[in-house]
Design a protein that fits this description.
Layout (H helix, E strand, L loop, with lengths): L1 E4 L1 H9 L3 H16 L9 E3 L6 E6 L3 E8 L2 E9 H7 L2
Parallel strand pairs: 1-5
Antiparallel strand pairs: 2-3, 3-4, 4-5
């Protein structure tokens, strides 16, 4: 799948200081890039109230917010669970 990163996603990644969490997020991004269908992306769940918004669960406490349209995946945000559901979608 093709991927695109919003500036907000890049800013959120810069704020994360935990090295293993960053490595897991990078691995998740690579998994999404290598996937050919949405079913190949682990821990992907559709968000209610939005047509194209999904979340990917990372490391139990972090969530990545993405929009999927066709084969284009746009990474929008990466936040702790407590903040993620307040701001996304």
């Amino acid at each position: 799948m093709r991927t695109l990163h919003k500036n907000s996603f890049s800013r959120n990644l810069k704020k994360i200081t935990h090295a293993t969490l960053k490595a897991e997020i990078r691995q998740t991004i690579e998994t999404v890039r290598n996937a050919t269908t949405m079913q190949e992306i682990p821990d992907l769940k559709k968000m209610k109230g939005s047509k194209n918004s999904y979340r990917i669960k990372v490391s139990g406490d972090y969530r990545i917010g993405v929009d999927i349209v066709g084969d284009l995946v746009t990474f929008r945000t990466c936040k702790p669970r407590k903040d993620f559901y307040k701001l996304f979608p």
